[in-house]
Write a sequence for this structure.
């Protein structure tokens, strides 16, 4: 279509000058008919005629391409005939463009599918590596505040926010287990989340919906890897009997799985698995939806901007879900093991027995932890993901 318009426009512009010589136009702009001679004399004549036409159009007709008022009747008829011939000939010249368009239409779905698969692969790889990279830094920085939060959430706790030295004493106890498990768990979480999100975008869903479903899909495998270390960590942080100071990570795992000492084998390590998912899913959904809302869904944010948005989003999510965190930590700590009531029943009992103070126990250190971990998580995530994507682009495009 574009080729047809271009040929028609060019032919009509040239035809404007044919008021002084329609025969010259026909001879110069009709190569499909084939001139009788291709010798040097012929080329010189055509070039001279073309130069005359261009000059007439630019200077004789004016900048706006107006036709001379003094055009004779015969010149007008010559002009009309030449324009009709040019328009009649233009579809034949435009045919290649139509064919090219058809070829592009036929091949574009294949190219589009390949591009989508490549994009999903890049999202999976970059998500896996960046998720693993941010885990170590985040765990080390937030761990003391995490320990303080767990200690304040235990029933009848001896710890108080007013006695900070005691609250933070031995706050790195039990860090080995989460460091070993959180790296692969974090890598798997972001790999699954980014891959599922990239795939769901093609379905035309709203951004918040794709984020929510992607986070939900990632929770299962994430907690499958993390839950055992989370159980041991929580018990060591809370100072549960047998898990206190001096207990190694190996001794802690043996104690948890030893049936003779009250353990339940491997099942003990997955105590609170569903409670963790029930807690983590709304917390992560709120965090990532808030982050995308603040960032406007833009990718490749500067690390400082990612840190600011991440800190605010994580703090809001952690504060809102504090009651869910209290219940799941008490379950993993083995508090009242004979109580077989459901998660909702435990939450209701907590609200009735301890009120808002119990529901939001440890909220202050949780928010402080969230500000730090959120800033670190998203700044590290954005920077690492951008670096990995640049590396993958070079490799795939090489």
């Amino acid at each position: 279509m574009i080729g047809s318009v271009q040929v028609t426009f060019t032919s009509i512009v040239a035809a404007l000058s044919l008021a002084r010589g329609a025969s010259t136009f026909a001879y110069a702009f009709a190569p499909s008919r084939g001139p009788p001679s291709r010798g040097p004399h012929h080329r010189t004549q055509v070039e001279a005629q073309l130069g005359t036409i261009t000059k007439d159009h630019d200077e004789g007709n004016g900048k706006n391409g107006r036709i001379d008022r003094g055009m004779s009747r015969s010149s007008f008829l010559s002009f009309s005939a030449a324009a009709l011939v040019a328009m009649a000939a233009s579809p034949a010249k435009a045919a290649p463009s139509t064919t090219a368009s058809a070829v592009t239409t036929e091949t574009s779905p294949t190219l589009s599918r390949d591009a989508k698969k490549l994009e999903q692969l890049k999202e999976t790889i970059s998500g896996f590596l960046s998720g693993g990279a941010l885990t170590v830094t985040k765990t080390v920085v937030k761990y003391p505040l995490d320990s303080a939060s767990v200690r304040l959430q235990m029933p009848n706790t001896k710890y108080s926010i007013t006695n900070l030295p005691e609250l933070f004493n031995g706050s790195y106890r039990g860090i080995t287990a989460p460091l070993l498990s959180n790296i692969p768990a974090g890598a798997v979480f972001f790999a699954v989340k980014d891959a599922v999100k990239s795939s769901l975008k093609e379905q035309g869903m709203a951004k918040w919906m794709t984020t929510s479903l992607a986070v939900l899909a990632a929770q299962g495998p994430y907690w499958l890897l993390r839950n055992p270390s989370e159980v041991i960590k929580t018990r060591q942080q809370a100072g549960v009997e047998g898990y206190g100071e001096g207990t190694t990570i190996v001794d802690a795992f043996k104690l948890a799985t030893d049936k003779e000492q009250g353990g339940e084998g491997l099942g003990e390590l997955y105590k609170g698995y569903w409670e963790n998912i029930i807690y983590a899913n709304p917390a992560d959904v709120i965090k990532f939806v808030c982050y995308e809302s603040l960032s406007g869904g833009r990718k490749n944010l500067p690390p400082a901007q990612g840190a600011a948005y991440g800190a605010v989003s994580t703090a809001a999510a952690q504060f809102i879900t504090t009651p869910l965190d209290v219940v799941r930590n008490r379950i993993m700590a083995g508090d009242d093991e004979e109580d077989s009531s459901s998660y909702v029943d435990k939450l209701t009992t907590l609200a009735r027995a301890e009120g808002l103070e119990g529901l939001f126990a440890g909220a202050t250190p949780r928010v402080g932890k969230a500000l730090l971990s959120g800033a670190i998580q998203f700044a590290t995530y954005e920077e690492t993901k951008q670096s990995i994507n640049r590396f993958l682009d070079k490799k795939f495009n090489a």
Residues 73-153 form the longest helix (81 residues).
